[in-house]
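Figure 3 (text version): structure tokens given as input.
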């Protein structure tokens, strides 16, 4: 077969045609063919076929940004994070928020005469927002040489980092709960919580071990202690009369234990009464192989607060007039940026079982 040769004249014509096509890149970048490739990727492929690189200009960068943004958003939306299961999400309107409402509400009483107005217990829990980012660099020469395919996995990883970071942040907040105070002035996980008429309360329990039998016994004990917690009026804090909606969070080393405990009909020839009694998440960010957590998630109020000021967004820095990185290094920057924080809600709804 005779090899097809791209002459200088043909190369010039192709380059002119591609330059004209770049005018339509904003629309082209958002289209997809039957194989799922964007119009922008198709144009890059066409240039590669004839050995013609892209001309880096404003239209090229607009198309590139739209293509990267589409890749980012698709990967971001495909991930289901764990934090909404145990966090109340609140929309922040400033640098911080004060969660004064975490105090206990007075119980119902028979209305005889005037209403009794009781102020909430003094609570002052302030959570400050934090800025977060993750950034990658795309070389100008890689755009010119049609080597953008090597960046698609990085854009996907950027999206995954932005989506999963709240889970990592929640984990760090949870683990720090034995040494960080919450709204009642005690450490979030502590053995000495007190709320007026509640008596001394604990959501920090010493486990008996990590075998299946030991974890079974510890889960039953923690569930009973959770049910028996009293509020500041001496009444049950968890008022649910039926089966509690419980969620276990455990490290990877305990996955097999909770998998069997959650799903097995019988264990050692004995009926497994905890089958279906709880859901569980295996958290790869937990580094302690022995400690695990039991959360009550049957209320609109949750054990943790996730405070959002700005959700993760995809940001491009590719204007040479506004970026030293573009001008001096010949690189374009693409980031995921966000502003949020995670903190403590109702400690009564989260119990730690420590085997360390």
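Below: residues designed for each position.
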């Amino acid at each position: 077969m005779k090899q097809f040769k791209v002459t200088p004249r043909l190369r010039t014509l192709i380059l002119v045609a591609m330059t004209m096509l770049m005018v339509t890149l904003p629309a082209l970048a958002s289209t997809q063919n039957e194989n799922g490739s964007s119009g922008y990727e198709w144009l890059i492929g066409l240039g590669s076929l004839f050995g013609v690189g892209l001309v880096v200009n404003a239209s090229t960068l607009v198309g590139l940004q739209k293509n990267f943004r589409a890749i980012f958003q698709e990967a971001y939306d495909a991930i289901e994070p764990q934090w909404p299961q145990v966090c109340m999400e609140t929309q922040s309107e400033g640098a911080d928020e004060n969660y004064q409402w975490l105090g206990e509400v007075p119980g119902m009483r028979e209305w005889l005469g005037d209403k009794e107005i009781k102020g909430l217990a003094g609570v002052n829990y302030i959570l400050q927002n934090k800025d977060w980012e993750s950034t990658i660099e795309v070389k100008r020469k890689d755009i010119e040489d049609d080597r953008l395919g090597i960046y698609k996995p990085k854009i996907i990883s950027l999206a995954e980092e932005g989506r999963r970071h709240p889970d990592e942040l929640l984990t760090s907040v949870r683990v720090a709960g034995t040494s960080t105070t919450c709204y009642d002035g005690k450490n979030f996980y502590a053995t000495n919580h007190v709320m007026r008429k509640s008596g001394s309360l604990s959501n920090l329990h010493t486990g008996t071990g990590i075998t299946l039998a030991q974890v079974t016994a510890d889960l039953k004990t923690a569930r009973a202690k959770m049910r028996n917690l009293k509020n500041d009026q001496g009444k049950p804090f968890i008022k649910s009369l039926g089966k509690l909606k419980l969620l276990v969070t455990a490290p990877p080393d305990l996955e097999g234990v909770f998998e069997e405990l959650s799903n097995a009909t019988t264990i050692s020839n004995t009926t497994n009464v905890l089958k279906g009694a709880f859901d569980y998440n295996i958290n790869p960010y937990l580094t302690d192989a022995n400690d695990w957590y039991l959360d009550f998630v049957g209320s609109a109020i949750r054990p943790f607060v996730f405070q959002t000021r700005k959700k993760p967004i995809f940001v491009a820095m590719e204007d040479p007039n506004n970026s030293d990185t573009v001008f001096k290094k010949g690189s374009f920057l693409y980031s995921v940026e966000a502003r949020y924080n995670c903190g403590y809600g109702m400690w009564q709804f989260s119990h730690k079982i420590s085997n360390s």
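The CA atoms of residues 303 and 323 lie 43 Å apart.
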